[in-house]
Design a protein that fits this description.
Elements: H1 3-13, H2 16-36, H3 40-49, H4 58-68, H5 84-94, H6 101-108, H7 119-130, H8 137-149, H9 152-173, H10 180-194
């Protein structure tokens, strides 16, 4: 499938707001890919497909994982809001017939992140947080300022650190489970950005 065909299908399976978000992530991912020297086409495809499983019901996601995905951590199963990521990564391969590891990993880790994320993974994670169609404009501007004030991948890492700070704060305020992967990524980003 090409990007036009993927967009057409996503419009049918996602809610209108989720579809607008998806188009925003695609556009933001392309901008970030150009800025940081990542593959623009891969960024476009990963941006489009990052939420391809987002509108599946909670029980359908759990059932899909039980049948099809073996490499998922038990603590990852405690927050259903992130279950669409491993399912989406599986669909990238099986439904959309894309076998590119960078795209698969970008979709797989766009919710939790992971230690030693690759460039495309970082771009999709960040684009998901700051796209302009549905995300908070003040938060977007704060992250863009971090990117503008810091050169190269350092800026990208500092922006990600800020995102993880906000994610952890939001989870604690809502009494939601924090996956240990999220904590590990936060600590890794602290180490590589400010040397803690």
């Amino acid at each position: 499938m090409n990007c036009t065909e993927i967009e057409k299908e996503l419009k049918e399976i996602l809610t209108p707001e989720r579809y607008m978000h998806t188009l925003g992530v695609k556009d933001c991912a392309v901008e970030l890919a150009k800025r940081y020297g990542a593959d623009v086409k891969k960024a476009e495809i990963a941006g489009l497909l990052h939420d391809c499983a987002k509108c599946m019901e909670k029980e359908a996601l759990k059932s899909f994982i039980a049948k099809n995905i073996k490499d998922i951590q038990k603590n990852e199963m405690k927050n259903y809001k992130t279950l669409h990521a491993p399912v989406g990564a599986n669909l990238v391969c099986t439904k959309y017939k894309i076998n590119d590891k960078e795209i698969i990993n970008a979709v797989r880790w766009h919710t939790l992140g992971r230690v030693n994320m690759g460039l495309l993974e970082k771009i999709i994670f960040l684009a998901d947080k700051i796209e302009k169609n549905t995300r908070d404009i003040n938060y977007r501007n704060e992250i863009l300022k971090i990117l503008d004030e810091n050169e190269g991948e350092k800026g990208l890492n500092l922006a990600l650190l800020r995102c993880f700070e906000e994610t952890i704060k939001s989870l604690t305020e809502r009494n939601l489970y924090i996956c240990m992967t999220t904590v590990d990524v936060y600590n890794w980003l602290l180490e590589i950005t400010i040397g803690v």
